[in-house]
Each structure stands twice: as structure tokens, then as C-alpha cells.
Design a protein that fits this description.
By secondary structure, the chain is mainly β. The chain contains three helices and 16 strands. The chain has a 16-stranded antiparallel beta sheet that branches.
């Protein structure tokens, strides 16, 4: 897994709580009611651009945008989210990255119904095509295998957006939140801990933020369980605007360098 250019999603791959789901058949699964509507913080047309810094160098860029789509499942309209990550400059010579992720989210429940992954990282390539059946609590991995999943499970991209729909208005320092995520035929628990509110300064200006520390596994990528920190704008958009990580081979910073099509005013102070 790349930690960097899909930095908004790297938290998932770093968590230590992993469960192997049971293989099933769709016909054997019971039928569940579709999840109800929840309030979201974004709209079609939103585009977020992130710049990745490795030490003092600009190593890559990631762009995540919400596109219009006619794709539907069980009568529900979708958001088509496309995430692209690529290496920049000299990094292309020794670790070229060209990643593309797509997720089709139910506009009512923000659950994913289709997930597409195409990654090329330093010569390593991977393709994944998942079809979710939330009404059957199952997912087809596109390779002839169907797995039972918890109700409300997310994919790598949809978890990024689902987290923005969560209510942190009553959160106290130390409170933890969990999002279950299906990735690489396994169920990951994405655990984030609320730290408090901070004002931070970036290239784009000064922003009021909420700070979170994803609860990660020590020793694999990070030296300490709190070596990854994420700042989210303290407004109705809840944009992950800055992430810092101290890893075993250095430090990484990823920050928003551009945002377009936001659904709400942003918590910018200048």
C-alpha cells in the first residue's frame, strides 16, 4: 500500500484491527432494509487538490472530486467520486505512482455500491472492482468471490466522505470514532480519536480546525501510535485539510492547495 499519494486513505491501511470476512453466496444472504438518509457535507462539483511533501520536497499530488453520474442501484442516485494520485518531479524516476480510485456513493446513506481501484506504484500494479450489495450485507470482489460484510461498511474512498458526515459537535478530547471499511478482501476498523480544536496556517491561509489522531498500529509504518495527525476544517464541510505523519523512514505532510465547489462556507480566517 502506498502511504503517500492516497494519503487521505492511508489511515485505513495502517490500522491494526483487521478481520477476514466469511465467504457466502448472494442467494444465501438475508434481505435488509436500505439505510436511511443522513446529512452530508458536500455536493457534486466539489474538487479537493492535495500536495504531498516528503521532507522538504514536493513528492506528489492527489485530487479528489465528486462527479455527476446516471448510475443507480435499487432506485437510489449516486455520487461518483474519483480520486487520482501521482508522483511529481524526481520521484517519478525511482518510485513512479499513477493511482486512480472510484467510488459510487448512495446520495442518501453515503454507502458505496461500486468501487474501482487502479494503482501503479513503483512497478507494482493492482486492479480491483467491488460491487456492494448492502441489501444483502455482501460484496462481490469481481473475482468470483462474495464476502459477508457488516451493515454500513465503507470502501477506501467512501470512508473519506462518510467521516465528513459524522457529528463532532459534542466531541470531547479523547473520544474515539470507528468506521468499518472493506479493503483487499478484509474488514478494517478505521479508528480516529478527537484531540481538540486548533487554528493552523497553510499556503491557502489560516483555518479553524478540529484535530484528530487516527489510532494506528505501531511498528509497521509509524514509530508511535499517534504519529499520524489530521486536521479537519471546523465548519459544515469538514474537509481534511492537513495531515502529518512521522514514519519509520522520515516525515510526510499532505495539505490542501486548492478547493472548489464546496457546499458550505469554509472556516478560513484570512
Amino acid at each position: 500500500m502506498t502511504l503517500a499519494l492516497t494519503g487521505a486513505f492511508c489511515i485505513i491501511s495502517a490500522t491494526g484491527q483487521v478481520n477476514k470476512p466469511k465467504q457466502v453466496t448472494l442467494s444465501s444472504q438475508p434481505t435488509f432494509a436500505l439505510a436511511p438518509r443522513i446529512q452530508n457535507a458536500f455536493k457534486v462539483g466539489e474538487k479537493l487538490t492535495y500536495r504531498l511533501h516528503y521532507g522538504f520536497l514536493d513528492a506528489g499530488e492527489a485530487i479528489v472530486e465528486i462527479q455527476k453520474t446516471d448510475y443507480q442501484r435499487l432506485g437510489r442516485n449516486m455520487f461518483h467520486v474519483v480520486g487520482r494520485g501521482y508522483s511529481l518531479g524526481a520521484f517519478n524516476w525511482f518510485f513512479k505512482v499513477r493511482d486512480r480510485y472510484e467510488s459510487y456513493l448512495d446520495q442518501e446513506s453515503l454507502l458505496p455500491w461500486k468501487f474501482v481501484r487502479r494503482i501503479e506504484e513503483g512497478g507494482f500494479k493492482k486492479s480491483q472492482d467491488y460491487t456492494f450489495h448492502h441489501n444483502r450485507a455482501a460484496v462481490d470482489n469481481g473475482k468470483g468471490e462474495v464476502y459477508e460484510i457488516p451493515l454500513g461498511v465503507q470502501d477506501m474512498i467512501s470512508s473519506f466522505y462518510y467521516a465528513r458526515s459524522m457529528d463532532f459537535s459534542k466531541a470531547k478530547p479523547g473520544d474515539q470514532f470507528t468506521i468499518k471499511t472493506f479493503m483487499d478482501d478484509e474488514i478494517y476498523d478505521l479508528n480516529i480519536k478527537y484531540v481538540g480544536k486548533e487554528t493552523i496556517s497553510l499556503r491557502k491561509g489560516k483555518f479553524r480546525c478540529m484535530k484528530f489522531v487516527p489510532v494506528v498500529q505501531e511498528g509497521r509504518i509509524f514509530k508511535d501510535s499517534e504519529d499520524l495527525q489530521v486536521w479537519i476544517t471546523d465548519d459544515d464541510n469538514k474537509i481534511p485539510i492537513l495531515a502529518k505523519a512521522n514514519i519509520l523512514v522520515g516525515s510526510i505532510k499532505m495539505e490542501v492547495v486548492d478547493y472548489q465547489g464546496l457546499a458550505n462556507p469554509i472556516a478560513k480566517l484570512d
